[in-house]
Automatic annotation (TrEMBL):
It comes from Solitalea longa. The chain crosses the membrane at residues 230-249. It comes from the Bacteria. It holds the Pfam family Glycos_transf_2. Keywords: Membrane, Transferase, Transmembrane, Transmembrane helix. The keyword Membrane applies. Residues 16-167 form the Glycosyltransferase 2-like domain. Gene3D superfamilies: Spore Coat Polysaccharide Biosynthesis Protein SpsA, Chain A. This is Glycosyl transferase. GO terms for molecular function: hexosyltransferase activity.
Length: 259
């Protein structure tokens, strides 16, 4: 475990960037460099490693002077690790940028806070990348012009890594959800927020794949339960029918292009 305070104190808000990693030796360095090379000075960087068995920790230690806090210990899953990161965060805002994910460019955070709008949540778009960091296009679900807690009825319209929330409004993750707790967390943050700003920026480069993609059936069950909790059964069923129709339409368009 390692801690230090390397934040420049000024009028600009402090952003706590939290990276969760386990056996991420192939991707962790790109994430670290993306964070520490930001032009924005007031970043508190936190890395929570789940007791990796590869060279992840050695890579983290190479950048130790740029990291406010890191730990390496076993956990009860990704959301337990994310809660550990939240408990260490002291910034005005928090953002999760997990192993393999990156900021879109070196000026992203500076651009987010350039408006000085003092919003509760800042959000934007996401570019999907592959293992070699090649861009695959923008995320299929696009952020709406105006976002509120009801927006997620049509799916998680904002990528978790493009969602910056005021720390005082950010609860711990519900560990009853093993795959889709990020949706529950984002909706909870949105419900607690008064001012939500669309940055009109691509905030992150998001590594394709992930837990929810690898466990689709459980993810769908959890998402349905979360949506039902917030929006009610009838609304969720009608929304899922619309989502299904949208998915089929997009698939048919893709097949036409290849024929």
């Amino acid at each position: 475990m390692y801690t230090q305070n390397n934040i420049i104190k000024n009028q600009s808000p402090v952003l706590s960037v939290i990276t969760i990693v386990y056996n991420g030796e192939h991707f962790i360095e790109r994430t670290i460099k993306s964070v520490i090379n930001q032009s924005y000075a007031n970043i508190e960087y936190i890395i929570v490693d789940g007791a990796s068995k590869d060279s992840t920790l050695s890579i983290v230690k190479n950048f130790e002077k740029h990291i406010a806090f890191w730990s390496s210990e076993s956990d009860k899953g990704i959301y337990d690790a994310m809660n550990k990161g939240l408990k260490q965060a002291t910034g005005d805002y928090v953002l999760f940028m997990n192993a393999g994910d990156q900021f879109y460019d070196t000026e992203t955070v500076e651009k987010v806070f350039a408006s000085n709008s003092n919003a509760d949540i800042y959000y934007g778009d996401a570019l999907i990348v592959d293992d070699e960091n090649n861009g695959l296009g923008l995320r299929r679900l696009r952020p709406p012009q105006q976002l509120n807690w009801k927006s997620f009825r049509m799916g998680m319209l904002v990528c978790h890594q493009s969602f910056i929330v005021r720390r005082s409004l950010a609860p711990l993750y519900n560990l009853n959800y093993k795959i889709a707790a990020d949706i529950d967390w984002c909706i909870s943050c949105l419900k607690a927020s008064s001012k939500i700003e669309n940055t009109q920026l691509i905030i992150c480069r998001y590594l394709s794949g992930g837990t929810s993609w690898q466990n689709q059936k459980r993810a769908l069950r959890e998402r349905f339960d979360i949506m039902k909790k917030y929006y009610g059964v009838i609304t969720v069923i009608s929304s899922h029918l619309a989502i299904t129709a949208r998915f089929i339409g997009q698939k048919l368009k893709g097949e036409k292009r290849t024929n």
